[in-house]
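Project standup — Tuesday

K.O.: blocked on the structure for the chain from last sprint. Re-posting the sequence here as requested.
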Amino acid sequence: MIQPATSKFIAATALILTLPGCSDESDRMRGKFVSGCMKGGAPEPVCRCVYTKLEAKYSLAEIEQMSDAYEMPPETMMRDIIQFAMACDAR
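H.V.: unblocked you, prediction finished:
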C-alpha cells in the first residue's frame, strides 16, 4: 500500500518530469505523469489509474498548469492526487 508521504513524493515527481515524443498534448501529459509517477516508485497500473481520475476531474489546461516545475499545484489538486493514488493502489 502506498503511504501518504510516498504519495506526495510520487505526485510531486510526476508533476515535474517530462516525456517527449507523444502524439498529442493529452498523450504527452499522460506520458509525462505516468513516467514521473513510476520513477517515484509506484507501479504503472496505479499511475495510469491516477491520471485517468485526474483527467475526469480536471481539464487538460489545469493538468498542464499543475505540471509547472516552478510552482506547487493547488492544495486541493495535491489532495486529489493523494486520494486517487490510495484508491488506485487499493484495487
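K.O.: great, moving the ticket to review. Residues 16-22 have pLDDT under 50 and may be disordered. Residues 4-89 form one domain.
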